[in-house]
Design brief:
With 297 residues, the chain is α/β, with parallel strands linked by helices. The chain is built from 13 helices and twelve strands.
Length: 297
């Protein structure tokens, strides 16, 4: 696979330390890597840090946007950048024809820009090879936040997990290991059966209020509104809510604030709590994904 990457032009657009680990691996494989959204202090041998998206994207065959993605206007998540970076039809048009664009999760504007420029879009967060290992640092970050915010120990605490996909599974596994009392609320019977085998109580969303009424902390992983104003009004004010779903999450945050309920939209936890592990995940799998997608063209 290494010969495939020799002289392949790859642009890395913003991001955090995770993307730096990925850039170093792509460079090791022989790719010509340009990064934008990083100061010169992050320069490494063979990595070209440039000042503009246009410089990074010109003649690139592959562009990699952050796992944390963009906002609704196409502004790239770039915490190390001294200026805002916006994706546009013009700057993406500088890429080579039939290029490949990778991002954690794509907002509608990103999907449209890729379609307008005939770029193949890959949403990394939807791929099992990325999402499954990433669930572990996400869950650990959620537990860390819980320990910081709850006035009680997790041992003996009551926790509700809404949704039981990769992240919900990982959160429940850690909570049970710490002797928490968990209830899983999910739609699929297969998910509920698995949760029950792991020692959790279970409920469907039809009985959501009954399931979460007496818990100390709620972890939401459902990427649409489930904790509405009506639901929040029925909860005790000292409950902690940690939303692990992609933005805008599944909580009415304005209602939570008005009601005095502590609620957090905990985005990008892998990059915050375990950037090396999260970066190694990208470095291991993203080159294989690029190879697979370009070779299938």
């Amino acid at each position: 696979m290494q010969s495939f990457f020799t002289k392949l032009n790859i642009a890395i657009l913003g991001g955090d330390r995770r993307e730096l680990y990925l850039a170093e691996e792509l460079n090791r494989l022989g790719a010509k890597v340009k990064l934008v959204g990083f100061s010169k202090e992050y320069a490494r041998d063979g990595l070209d840090i440039v000042e503009s998206l246009e410089n990074a994207l010109e003649n690139a065959k592959v562009a990699i946007a952050p796992m944390a993605g963009t906002d609704d206007e196409g502004k790239i998540n770039a915490p190390f950048s001294s200026k805002p970076l916006y994706l546009t039809k013009t700057n993406l048009g500088l890429m080579r024809g039939d290029g490949l664009f990778l991002i954690g999760t794509a907002k509608p504007i990103v999907k449209k820009l890729c379609a307008d420029n005939n770029l193949k879009l890959i949403e990394l967060a939807n791929l099992d090879e990325i999402a499954i290992p990433n669930a572990i640092p996400t869950a650990e970050g959620a537990i860390q936040l819980t320990m910081e915010k709850l006035p009680i120990t997790i041992n003996g605490a009551k926790a509700a997990i809404l949704g039981f996909g990769r992240v919900g599974f990982a959160v429940n596994k850690i909570l049970k290991a710490l002797n928490a009392d968990t209830v899983v609320v999910a739609r699929k019977l297969s998910a509920l059966a698995l949760a029950e085998e792991m020692g959790a109580k279970t409920s469907t969303f039809d009985n959501l209020l009954d399931a979460i009424q007496d818990v100390d902390v709620i972890y939401n992983t459902v990427p649409h509104l489930v904790l509405t104003r009506e639901v929040l009004m029925a909860l005790p004010r000292n409950i902690l809510i940690i939303d692990l779903a992609s933005a805008p999450g599944g909580v009415d945050f304005s209602a939570a604030k008005e009601l005095g309920i502590e609620a957090f939209l905990a985005l990008g936890l892998p990059g915050k709590v375990a950037p090396k592990t999260a970066g190694q995940i990208l470095a291991k799998y993203v080159p294989q994904i690029i190879f697979r997608e370009l070779c299938s063209v």
